[in-house]
Amino acid sequence: MNRNENNFLSLYVHWPYCESKCPYCDFNSHVNENIESAHWINSYTNQLYSMKEQLSEHDVSTKKLNTIFFGGGTPSLMPLEIIESILKTSFDLFGYNKCIEISLEANPTSYEKDKFCDLKKLGINRLSIGVQSLNDDNLKLLGRLHNTEDAQLAVEHAIKTFNNVSVDLIYAFHGQQIINWTNELKVFLRNNDLQHISLYQLTIEEGTKFFTNYKKGLFNKIDDNKAANFYEISNEILNDQNFSKYEISNHAKHGFQCKHNLSYWKSQNWIGIGPGAYGRLWSSKSNNSRVEYQNYKNPKRWLSKNMYKSEFEKINFFNNTTSDIDTLTMGLRLCEGIETSKLYDESIIQNNAFKKLEEQKIIIIKDGILRVNKNYMIKLNSIIDFLTNS
Ligand SMILES: C[S@@+](CC[C@H](N)C(=O)[O-])C[C@H]1O[C@@H](n2cnc3c(N)ncnc32)[C@H](O)[C@@H]1O
Ligand code: SF4
Question: What is the pLDDT of residues 70-86, one digit of tens each?
C-alpha cells in the first residue's frame, strides 16, 4: 500500500542560530556567529539538489511541495537573501502545490518585527511567533530577551501582515499560579485574533541550564496533578475561544491546523535540510519502506560538509517494526488518531498491551482507527512507551 496518504511532500529548513540560548531549550540552537550568506546558500542549495535525486532514486511519486517550514533556532534572524534563495531553488526543483503553506518561526523582538513585511513579500504565508509567556516575570524566568509589550506589538503587526498567525506559549511550571495564567490567557486570546496556538508544558530537558539547576535543587518540577489541571483548564479556555485541539499541544481555528506538522504526525514524506534536520521518505523502490536522512548537527560541520557537495551524516533504512513504532509514536499525538492500515503489522493492536489499554478505555480502536481517549492525552508519553515497549 501507499503509506504516504495524499502523496504530500514537505520541506523543513533548519536555521540553528539565536540571539541568546534560553535556559530551557534543547533544540539545535546556538548563539549567532558571523554568517557568510553565500556559504549557507551553497550548502542549502546542494542539499535541495541532492534530495531531488533521492526522490527519483526512491521513486517517490509526489514531487511538488505542499508545505515548507523554516524552524530553528530563530529563523526570523536568517538573512533574507538565504530565505529567498531557498524558496527560489525549492520552487525551481520541486514546484509548489496551489495552496502551499510556508511557515516561519519568529521571535517577537522589534528587530524581527520590522522584517515581517519583507518575509511576506518573499512568500512566507504563516508566521509562528515565540511569545512564550504573557507575564514579564515569567519571561525573565524563561530567560527571554523580549517583554510582554514587545510581544504584543509583534503579534499585532503579524496579524496585520499575515492571514495565518500562530503563537507558542510555555506554561505549567513550578510556582506559576493557575489563576494568573488563566486570566493572562483569556485576555490575550480576546485581544488577538489568532488562527493557531501551540501550548507547551515546560519540560526540563537534559543538557539545559534548567536541568543543571534542577539537579542542584535550585529549580523544581511542577507536580503532575497540578500540570494536569493546567492542561485541562487551558484546553477549556481555548475551546471557548473557538480553537479545537487537534494534537496534544496544538489548537487551531477551523481550517488552520498546521499542515506542515500534520505531515510529520501522519508520517508523510518530508525533506529536511540544514544542521541537524532530518527527512523521511517512503521508498517505492525498497518495498515501500521508510528511509531517514540525518544531517550533521553541528552548524560549522554541516556547512563544511555541504558547501561543495551534499553529504548526510547517516541514511537509515527502517525495518517494518521500527517503522510501525515511528508511525504510532507520531500518529497517536493526533486527537483523530491513526488508521491502523498504516501499520505493516496491523495485528500488533491485538497484543496484550493494546488490549489492556483498550479495556481500560485509555485507547480506542474503532472502524480501523486507533486513538488515545482525550481524557488520557496528558499521559501520552507513558501510553506510547507502554504500547511500544511491552
Ligand atoms: C524551536 S523552538 C522556537 C523557536 C523560536 N526561537 C522561539 O524561541 O520562539 C519551538 C518551541 O518549542 C517550545 N519549547 C522549547 N523548549 C521547550 C521546553 N523545554 N519546554 C516546553 N516548550 C519548549 C517553545 O515554545 C518554542 O517556541
Ligand atoms: S527557545 Fe527559541 S530562542 Fe530560545 S534558544 Fe531555543 S530556539 Fe533559540
Answer: 999 999 999 999 999 99
Cα 29 to ligand 2 centre (Å) = 6
Q: Is the beta carbon of 108 within 6 A of some atom in ligand 1?
A: no
Domain range for 345 is: 320-390
Specify the ligand 2 atom closest to the Cα of 73.
7
The answer to whether 304 and 40 are in contact (CB under 8 A) is: no
* Same domain assignment for residues 224 and 369: no
CA distance linking residue 92 with residue 3, whole number of Å: 27
- Rounded to the nearest 10°, the torsion over CA 80, 115, 139, 23 is 10
Cell numbers that stand for 148 in this block: 510582554
Full-model pTM: 0.96
Q: Is 128 in the pocket of ligand 1 (CB under 6 A)?
A: no
The predicted pLDDT at position 2 comes to 57
Nearest-atom number in ligand 1 for the CA of 22 is: 8
Cis-peptide, bond into residue 95, ω within 30° of zero: no
In a domain, 273, yes or no: no
Instruction: For ligand 1, say whether the CB of 206 is within 6 Å of any of its atoms.
Output: no
Choose one of 262, 277, 298: the last residue of a domain: 262
CA distance 221 to 206: 13
Which ligand approaches the C-alpha of residue 12 most closely? Answer: 1
CB 201 within 8 A of CB 176: no
C-beta 130 within 6 A of ligand 1: yes
Give the distance from CA 130 to its chain's centroid: 12
Look at residue 218 and tell me if it is in a domain.
yes
211 lines ligand 1 (CB under 6 A): no
